[in-house]
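If you are new to this repository, start here. Below is one unmodified record pulled from the training split, so you can see the exact layout before writing a loader.
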Amino acid sequence: MLRNYIKTAWRNLWKGRVFNTMNVIGLSVAIACCIMLFLTVYFQFTFDRFHVNINKIHQLSFSSSRAEGTEISTAMCAPLAQALKDDYQDIRYITRMANGGATVKYGGKELEKNIHFVDTDFFKMFTFPVVNGNKNNPLADLNDLVLTEYAAKAIFGKENPIGKTIELKYADTPHNFVVSAVVKDFPENSSITFDMLLRFEVTPDYQEHMKHWDWHDHSTFIQLHDNVKPEVFGKQLQTFVNKNFKEVIDGMKKDGAKADANGNVYSLNLLPFANNHFATEINGLEGGQVSKTYVFSLMAIGIFILVIACINFVNLSVARAFTRAREVGVRKTLGAGKWQLLVQFWVETFMVCLFAMVAGIILANFIMPGFNATFRSNMEISMLFKVSHILVMIGVLLLITMIAGLYPALLMMRFKTVSVLKGSVGNAKPGKTRNVLLVTQFTLSTLLIVCTLISWQQISYLKSRPLGYNKDEVISIPIGNSLKGDQALELFRNKMNGQPGITAITGAYDNMGSGKDGSMRTSRIGFDYKGHTVRTTIQGVSYDFLKALDIKLVDGREFSRAMAGDSNAIVINEKMAAQLGKNIRVGDLVPLDENSPSRIIGIVKDYNYRSLRSEIEPLTLVMQGYEINYVFVRVKADNLIRAFNQVKDKWHETFPNVEFTGSWINENTERQYVAEQRLSTIFISGAIIAIIISCIGLLAMSFMIMVQRTKEIGIRKVLGANVGVLVMLLSRDFLKLVLLAAVIAFPLAWWLMSKWLESFVYRTPIYWWIFALAGFIALAIAFLTVSFQSVRAALANPVKSLRSE
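And here is the target side for that same chain:
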């Protein structure tokens, strides 16, 4: 029986191969898109899930309820971890974690590698399996070193690294360590990434930091005993905070801090590590955080495309149902029951969906590399063939078959035998259903068009908005770990001295934007000033910083080599000046360091030194206490490409063993909005695919309707109707539906994008013309699609049209 169903289904599918090919193309494209989007969503939602204890691990954070708002910081002080473990028996494991970089020397090789400084409990909490070496306690001794498989291969090649001694240079000092273990390479979706692990006790200035409770520079993670509830333990921590941070609390209260719901102005909290990847509102977390809005947008676009494809399938099937009316009538006359007809149509639908799914998987395999390159994903088609994913695909296949095949099958089963054999089949009810589905299709498509336009407009606004400094003519060069910053800057200054096209050279502790090395850092300090606490971002800079970046002075001057006292002087921005008080002047002393107050020598106009998601905050530029990590070179605007190559060549001449990873600052600032650019690209791609799939269905439906109205068109032509009138007559019903879809989509799109724009301090308004343009695009595409068939029908010979009936 099943064999007969399949043979009959194949014959019917081949007979209607034009429509079925359209169905397969639409579904396969939708399935390919959904595969990539849903795998990306799966990848994001499974971040860090390879850790066995992930639901038991928490990261510590301080919450400060200041007068200007609540601040959350994950930076901890060195003595805190041991003090917590001594005071609370509920803590099973605790580890500090600090990041750093080092130059590795071994066997004539010199490599730059990333370090994590951790405590011995690290391996008891996190799942990084040891594949070679000491599995029980990989960091038992202070000179032990743990490598990843990738780092071990890069340093030692095919040698066994266990027991080998290598030299690491960090904090400008060489140290020797012995490789004690090699851990398995962590998966791509890991927040914690490293090349090597060292004991936390070997961090620079460790003993000095252990004396200070006000030096916050690393993360701390804890794991509680299984019978301890995190929310109960969290409340117990306030006693610890009140005891060890009394001065901080008193200072905050004096400055007008407002207590939170629990009556605390300063508290220590537990952040679930399982939520780490999506906690974009908290700075200082491990790994790159991703907004859930971004991930849910991917999921929504995938669902939209799949729904549009299913609607397309239904519309095409309904359109073709009328051509199969006589077939159904004959089958009923010959004794076919309803269930037999239903199973026959379902088998046909299943075969089409199966072909589409196979074609979609093949298509996804071909476009996966391009998708990964565009969206910086790490998808592999092999991820699709996990047992759980295969079961999901089977479930989706059956669901699409049921949904997309049920209505057309029931519609054809309801045809009255006598009516269809006479050639009379009503189409009022199917027309209503078709219209609802068509409106749904174009509502989703128009929604994506509006989201595309608004996201594109916001990104353009971010790129074009003046930041208050020159970002177009300045090259940023990371110095790296193998060079001492101050010395490297002076060497390069001397090398570039007198070179044509070079305007100024300077250096800084922090980068402007996000450079090719991927690093972004912000340093903040607080101090007492005239009875209240002042908080400011600190930027360590060198001479000519304002000149190189073209930052405007409001008052005073910038740092000068001719002034010996400038090494302890500061330059502040307008926000910092306002925080210090309206009477602040150039020449006043500010106690950044209570033992050695700094003199203000200049006040600069506020500029956006961070991304436009944040407001400009108080900023202080200093000349001492901060290493120079970046060299900034400002060049003349007449030939930027030649100037860049000139700087690159001179860098290689000065530092032949150090890689040049320079980039324009305007590239760095744009790199801050990679997530938004990816989202915009996904909206654009989703909108294009949704429109194409919708148009495939619209084209097929218009073709069927033209066939049904052939006699009407012939009569109208005989009575004098011209081509333009006929085209508008045949197209207007579709255009009304598309216009209705746009009206439904506009308020939903406005609400969604308003919520998205709220994440930006600086954002573009949503203009009325965006909706007008989106509606025009949707109407124009629909009109062009329908008019293609309308023009053909209108140009047909009316004599042939009348004979066809």
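Two things worth knowing about this chain: The CA atoms of residues 396 and 402 lie 10 Å apart. Residues 98-211 form one domain.
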